[in-house]
Design a protein that fits this description.
3-stranded antiparallel β-sheet, alpha+beta, Muramoyl-pentapeptide Carboxypeptidase, domain 2, 4-stranded antiparallel β-sheet, 9 helices, 232 residues
């Protein structure tokens, strides 16, 4: 017997009703939970394989979830021949709602790694960034587009600007504002390392990334990309 979706205590409104109707179907809720637990973009083929149903059935479920703003879609960018795939994941703004994953889960795992290994937050974050880049569908994407996609998926609400020395991403939301307010050194260093790992994996040593941290409650941190300075 399918487990029914959990009830959600939120202000009543058309948005919540639309979400509730979308997740009222047991198969669709099962699909939603699988996507939330995966914490990455998934193709229709992967989702159909999980549910053991036809691709068209998955597309119908995805259309309902997207209409309710529970799921977002992105077209794969690649340099290889062939038609780009459509990829899906849970909308980051729904983290912690309807049984979706909590955004603090990754931070908790990183902190445990720091305690056990004795490494700095920057080192742990960089390793996480390298791993994330290897798992994400960023092949063939430009660096700015890849970082923008990653930050958007993480719920940072990035906005691109052209800075004095190159492109910058302004992060208009901090999903970890409460933790960063209490210990900005640790949380910001984890994310500094994360960005360095992502940039190294996508662009190699040709680009340097700088995180200009701001008040977590006000948000507005800046990710600055500049050509790397080579010595000798």
């Amino acid at each position: 017997m399918e487990t029914p979706p959990p009830r959600l205590l939120r202000d009543s409104g058309s948005e919540v009703h639309l979400e509730a109707r979308a997740l009222g179907d047991p198969t669709r809720y099962r699909l939603f939970r699988f996507m939330a637990d995966s914490q990455r973009y998934l193709s229709v083929v992967e989702l159909a394989s999980y549910l053991q149903v036809h691709h068209n059935a998955v597309r119908q479920h995805l259309a309902v979830l997207m209409e309710a703003n529970l799921v977002i879609m992105e077209r794969e960018r690649r340099s290889l021949p062939g038609r780009p795939r459509l990829l899906y994941r849970v909308n980051p703004s729904n983290s912690g709602l309807w049984g979706a994953g909590d955004p603090y889960r990754s931070v908790v795992l990183w902190l445990i790694d720091m305690i056990r290994s004795g490494r700095s937050g920057r080192e742990v974050g960089r390793e996480a960034g390298l791993k994330r880049a290897a798992e994400a569908p960023y092949e063939g994407m430009g660096l700015v587009d890849a970082l923008n996609s990653d930050m958007a998926a993480g719920g940072y609400w990035p906005r691109m600007e052209e800075g004095r020395d190159g492109p910058e991403l302004v992060l208009e939301r901090c999903p970890f504002a409460e933790a960063a307010s209490r210990d900005p050194g640790t949380i910001c260093e984890l994310h500094r390392g994360l960005l360095e790992g992502l940039v190294d994996a996508i662009a190699g040593e040709s680009v340097s990334v700088t995180l200009l941290a701001n008040d977590p409650d006000a948000a507005g941190c800046r990710v600055v990309l500049t050509p790397a300075v080579r010595r000798g």
